[in-house]
Amino acid sequence: MDNYEDGSESIDTSDYSYLAPTTLIPLLCNINKYNLKKIHTHQNTEKYVKEILNMKSTLTRTPYMVLPHNEKDRQNKELSHKMALRINEDYGGFYVLRHIISELTNNIYNHTSFEDGYANQGYTYAQEYPNLKMLDICVMDDGLSIPGRFKKSGIEFTDECHAIEKAISNLSTVSKNPHERGNGLWTTVKLVVEGNKGSVLIVSDKGCLHINGIEDYKYKVLHNKNKFKGTLISVRLNKNKVQHVYDLMETFTGNPYKYNKNEGGS
Predict the structure, then answer these.
(1) DSSP state, 63?
(2) Of the candidates 129, 127, 145, which has an alpha carbon nearest to the alpha carbon of residue 137?
(3) Residues forming beta bridges with residue 234, ordered by sequence position
(4) How far apart are CA 185 and CA 211, in angstroms?
(5) What is the pTM of this model?
(6) In the chain, at which end, N or C, are there fewer CB atoms within 10 A of the end residue's CB?
(7) CB distance 157 to 147 below 8 Å
(8) Superkingdom of the source (predicted)?
(9) Is 38 inside a domain boundary?
(10) Confidence at residue 176, expressed as pLDDT on a 0 to 100 scale
(11) Taking 50 as the threshold, does the pLDDT of residue 191 lie above it?
């Protein structure tokens, strides 16, 4: 987006020989936001980007999905279930895949509703890398963001990273009781990081948290004003099934990913 000039009908990604879901989904948001007509690509990504834009699926890729503005439509179409069916269940297991997709998309409808005008766009997309035995799932909306939702709910935080720390401490902003538990982010993090030994990236407004393990994580305040709006969550799963799923989901012993504003995580 640094290469984008106001009023232009195109965007240049030709410097990048590789584009992953975590890059493509924000790009799709901006394509629609600015009504871009053309994407300049690197020769290595030209075919891939064209197929993505045409919503073409393959054995290793789901088509990117535009989330319906009405939650009932999403439920009626069983979008989370259908997306999970397209993914190799060796990456965590079918139930884990469906739960992750469902919870992350539920968060959008619960916290930054399209119908209430808080968000305009929402996307999901999954890409498998068979040679690396890894799978990326990315979910994004251009809505209130985690810090924005906390402000609206009267929950205090020091900065955007601190808001993310609170969000993965299973703090609910849906219930009238702001200290009641919420399930979406903390169960996803536990299933991916503890259950699958995978990684999680959360970007919301200017806050960013990248988790590679319970003792391997990093918070960062980004300088992304006017380039990114809303929340992006990308999970990377390894090719192994999660064991003791229910135990992981039902046990909350506190958030190990503490944010220290002076240290920036660990």
Answers:
(1) P
(2) 127
(3) 138, 201
(4) 13
(5) 0.91
(6) N
(7) yes
(8) Archaea
(9) no
(10) 45
(11) yes
pLDDT of residue 173: 52
**pLDDT at position 171:** 62
- Say if CB 97 and CB 89 are below 8 A apart: yes
DSSP secondary structure string for all residues of 106-168: HHHHHHS-TTTTS-S-EEEEEEEETTTTEEEEEEEE-SS-HHHHHHHHT---SSHHHHHHHHT
Render pLDDT for 74-127 as a digit per residue (tens, 0 to 9): 777 788 999 999 999 999 999 999 999 999 999 898 888 888 888 889 999 999
In a domain, 5, yes or no: no
Residue ranges making up the domain that contains 222: 64-250
Give yes or no for residue 175 having a pLDDT over 60: no
CATH number of the domain enclosing 150? 3.30.565.10
Contacts of the segment 170-178: beta carbons below 8 A, 24+ positions apart: 170/252, 170/255, 173/111, 173/149, 174/110, 174/111, 178/153, 178/154
The terminus-to-terminus CA distance of the chain in angstroms comes to 29
CB atoms closer than 10 angstroms to residue 21: 26
The number of folded domains in the chain is: 1
Residue 177, in any domain of the structure: yes
Give me the count of residues in the chain. 266
Q: What is the pLDDT of residues 194-234, one digit of tens each?
A: 999 999 999 999 999 999 999 999 999 998 776 788 999 99
How sure is the predictor about 4, in pLDDT bands with cuts at 50, 70 and 90? confident
Query: How far is it, in rounded angstroms, from Cα 219 to Cα 264?
Result: 5
Q: Is residue 185 situated within a structural domain?
A: yes
Helix%, strand%, coil% for the chain, nearest 5: 30, 25, 45
